[in-house]
Design goal:
Elements (H helix, E strand, L loop, with lengths): L1 H22 L2 H9 L5 H6 L37 E7 L1 H13 L6 E7 L13 H11 L4 E5 L8 E3 L2 E3 L4 H20 L4 E4 L7 H20 L3 E3 L15 E3 L5 E3 L10 H15 L32 H10 L13 H4 L13 H5 L15 H9 L1
Parallel strand pairs: 1-2, 1-3, 3-6, 6-7
Antiparallel strand pairs: 4-5, 8-9
Pfam families: DUF459 (PF04311)
GO molecular function, one term: phosphatidylcholine lysophospholipase activity
Keywords: Signal
Length: 383
């Protein structure tokens, strides 16, 4: 027992003497602070001193390097005398106008004006009256060339003089056509070139069929009104000939052409439509500072003074192709003799005699199914 007590005293004095030794050196003090202080129990039973764990170094999160975005393209300032292209219609016109703005963004000679009004049409003129609006725009001379795409809201009953008619009935069609003719008639009187865009296929079959019937009315109105009609129906069909939300874009890559509602165009679809329209616009606008100038093929002729729609480009050309050449009654026709015989007939000649018709070789235009065979004539001469 005495021995144990002695050992305790020795250990106590040893700890008291060790502390001043550590206080003399700063480095040792730092080491002692990092180590766990040894107790009397550790000295008696020989427990190994445990080193304090190294301090945890907190690292700052590495910041990602900023991504360098390409510089925006400089906006091209439009010329003062730039051709003003106005887009009229419903929500389809709004998307189309944005696409045309992108298409002609770098052309200083063409300015796109968005005149689209969502939820509008020719049926609900109490909500928005397009015939009144187009008259106001013409009076203000706010545009040079008109693009029209409209109709997705017009499959509903129409009211005329207090009477309501269901959509696509004969009474509805007559009232609808009257409003179309009024709209185009104002543009025709103001000699404003018009490109009317037909409606694309829709995802719902019944709704798509109704839009096709309305597009047929647009086509007839555009034809009679001397406007261009751009049929885009087949250009937005799938390979199976049915509605498809996918299709090739302007670069030939497969992309989403329509929005989820199955009615409106996506950005890629609107850009594709803008490309098609740019091909029709070339009839009236070719860039390079050339303003809208429409040449009339009948200008300077007797037919130019006749009552007819103003010339609108290809639409009027198609009308001429259907109607045929216009020849004034007072104009003397050219003699056919110059085309049938080698030598022109004298002016006093009244035509071909019966003998000449009978003697015409078989196969000539004036043989009329009879005539002589040149080979038989040669055989008779040899005999």
């Amino acid at each position: 027992m005495k021995r144990i007590f002695a050992l305790l005293l020795i250990a106590l004095f040893a700890t008291v003497e060790v502390a001043p030794a550590f206080a003399q050196a700063e480095t040792r003090i730092e080491v002692a602070q990092q180590q766990k202080r040894r107790t009397l129990f550790d000295v008696l039973f020989g427990a190994e001193p445990q080193q304090a764990p190294p301090p945890v170094q907190q690292t700052q999160p590495r910041q990602a390097a900023p991504v360098a975005l390409p510089p925006p393209k400089p906006q091209v300032e439009k010329a003062e005398n730039a051709t003003r292209l106005a887009v009229f219609g419903d929500s389809l016109a709004v998307d189309l106008a944005k696409a045309l703005e992108r298409f002609y963004a770098e052309d200083p000679n063409l300015l796109v004006i968005n005149q689209g009004v969502g939820s509008s049409g020719f049926v609900r003129d109490d909500y928005f009256n397009w015939n009144k609006t187009i008259g106001e725009q013409i009076a203000a001379d706010s545009f040079d060339l008109a693009i029209v795409i409209i109709g997705v809201n017009d499959r509903q009953e129409i009211r005329v003089d207090g009477q309501s008619y269901n959509s696509l009935t004969p009474q509805w069609t007559a009232a609808y056509q009257a409003r179309l003719n009024n709209f185009l008639g104002q543009l025709r009187s103001a000699r404003k070139p018009v490109i009317w865009v037909g409606l694309p296929p829709m995802s719902k079959t019944e709704y798509s069929a109704a839009m096709s019937q309305i597009s047929a009315l647009y086509k007839m109105a555009a034809f009679s009104g001397g406007a261009e009609y751009l049929d885009i129906y087949e250009r937005f069909l799938g390979e199976d000939g049915k509605y498809s939300s996918q299709g090739p874009d302007v670069n030939g890559q497969n992309a989403r052409m329509r929005k989820d509602d199955g009615i409106h165009f996506s950005t890629a679809g609107a850009d594709k439509l803008a490309f098609y329209i740019s091909q029709s616009i070339r009839t009236f606008y070719r860039g390079g500072g050339i303003t809208v100038a429409v040449a009339d093929p009948l200008l300077g002729t007797d037919a130019a003074a006749m009552l007819r729609p103003p010339y609108q480009g290809q639409g009027q050309t198609r009308l001429l192709e259907v109607a045929g050449a216009v020849v004034p009654i007072s104009r003397a026709p050219q003699r056919a003799a110059d085309l049938l015989v080698a030598t022109p007939q004298p002016a006093s000649d009244t035509g071909f005699s019966l003998e000449q018709l009978m003697a015409a070789p078989i196969g000539r235009a004036d043989a009329f199914g009879v005539g002589i065979d040149p080979s038989e004539t040669e055989n008779e001469g040899q005999q």
